[in-house]
């Protein structure tokens, strides 16, 4: 028997990437899945977002685990759409036990190059829409007598990064929201945690826009991203698979994590624990460059 046998999990941003991994992994543990996604582009985002075909593939992969999957195209920024999605899920599957509010975007710009429109898009998508989605799910968790609500933040919800002021602000907000909701909902046996991943190998990370960002300009590739990405982790790897984050979701959603609430739960290869100074991989690189220059 799986650790989530008989449970229903509501997951946003489930068409691909971390959301898909969460859906498949929770289904493998016995949960029925409600997978929502916008399945369309958002103005200002410089890389391709998920499509209806991606969401259909998530359904197929969940059903391979012998679990039911209800796919709903919905914009998490719209309270009405999220309430309708949660109500439909509860009506068809008998309730909701787990909410995984996972959707998000990334937009890079410094304080002097970011437009008001881009700032609003980021905060609306990565923070306000998290609140709207959580608010739609919470009444159904209350009906069940408790449950687990997991908000995907980021290592950027714990520490900061250069050139990402709106992203860092939104993700810090998600961590704060999770902690605030944990206080309010704890007496009703609803556990709320913020999940804080590091560099995860998903389409949101591996695309020309992000590769250029890591490269410091045009011409970035997966290969050029390796060094700066690895320099941000303590463990000697540049990124890791989405399934590693999904395993943390299972823990937080299951009875194994029944006393865990109000945390910023880092699955980040040590990103948020990196001490001040030059990372070891960067120190090695600098030494190699110095030796080469001395020849």
Question: What's the helix and strand layout?
Answer:
Elements: E1 8-11, H1 17-28, E2 32-37, H2 52-63, E3 69-73, H3 79-93, E4 98-101, H4 116-143, E5 147-152, H5 165-185, E6 190-197, H6 208-215, H7 222-231, H8 242-253, E7 264-267, H9 280-294
Parallel strand pairs: 1-2, 1-4, 2-3, 4-5, 5-6, 6-7
CATH class: Alpha Beta
Order of strands, main sheet, comes to 3-2-1-4-5-6-7
Helix share bin: 40-55%
N→C terminal distance: 63 Å
Number of strands: 7
What general form does the structure show? globular
Tell me what the CATH architecture is. 3-Layer(aba) Sandwich
Which fold does the CATH topology refer to? Rossmann fold
Order of SSEs, N→C? Answer: EHEHEHEHEHEHHHEH
Biggest sheet character: 7 strands, parallel
Range of strand content: 5-15%
Structural class: alpha/beta
Weakly predicted, low-confidence segments: none
> If you compute it from the alpha carbons, what radius of gyration comes out, rounded to the nearest whole angstrom?
19 Å
Number of domains: 1
Report the total helices: 9
Average pLDDT works out at 94
Name of the CATH superfamily: NAD(P)-binding Rossmann-like Domain
